[in-house]
Design brief:
alpha/beta; four-stranded mixed β-sheet; 17% helix; 2,3-Dihydroxybiphenyl 1,2-Dioxygenase, domain 1
Length: 129
């Protein structure tokens, strides 16, 4: 069955987005060739995928009526959703959906990055609910 093998973050300001994710998750970025494209390394020796960062295609984000490229929500596994939400807010992010229990699974929150992209934060906790 098909599985995710790569993700991309579209950003109005890729350099600003790069700084946000470097500080929030410790991801590393490497510019790819002559393109305005950065490869994202999310970690080593653990399950997960790597991705890319590029200038948003389809025009700037209009927060009232989005029309540029908008994609899937990727969720990151974290050890403390509350701490990561607070850290994201301190880096210029916004809460999209407050932290909530997913019964028998864990704690989930959705955050907007500095570019208006939404991502999830999931803390495993079978006792959540």
């Amino acid at each position: 069955m098909p599985r995710p093998v790569h993700f991309e973050i579209q950003a109005d300001d890729p350099v600003r987005a790069k700084g946000f994710y470097e500080q929030l998750f410790g991801w590393s970025f490497q510019k790819w060739g002559e393109h305005d494209y950065w490869l994202i390394k999310t970690g080593e020796d653990q399950p997960g995928i790597d991705g890319g960062l590029l200038k948003r295609m389809g025009g700037p984000l209009d927060r009232q009526t989005p029309h540029p490229v908008i994609g899937y929500v990727c969720t990151m596994g974290v050890d403390d959703t509350e701490a990561y939400v607070a850290k994201a807010l301190g880096l210029g992010g916004e809460i999209a959906v407050p932290r909530m229990a997913v019964q028998g699974v864990g704690w989930l929150a959705y955050v907007k990055d500095t570019e208006g992209n939404i991502f999830g934060l999931m803390q495993e906790d079978p006792s959540a609910g």
